[in-house]
């Protein structure tokens, strides 16, 4: 079984291959940085989990704005509609402050983490946030209905489910 440092080495190796700049908090097994996609720039966090019976990787990308209180219900509906079709990455919103994240992860209790596994999931997480960011922004800051925002994305081409 891989040690936490080996998990961390795998993660940093992949991020280094992509020439990403990140901050490593080795004491807590966390890396943070920023990504730029076609539709915006956002922060990401990768946590290497190694405690009690838990062992894994959690990838979190942060939508770059908080949803205003009056639009949180509509954005929650949008995120629910998106999540219904997703298998490997999902969105969540903190209803108290409007923070939205896109999360992905691995349970590695009885498994090895390969660079290809991490790379594929890290990129899927980033592409998922980047793909849906325009719909999130439309529903967040205009009167666009969640269904209409999804339909507009569908007309542009869908992201791998």
UniProtKB/TrEMBL annotation:
Highest taxon, organism lineage: Bacteria
Protein name: Putative sensory transduction regulator
Source lineage: Bacteria, Pseudomonadati, Pseudomonadota, Gammaproteobacteria, Moraxellales
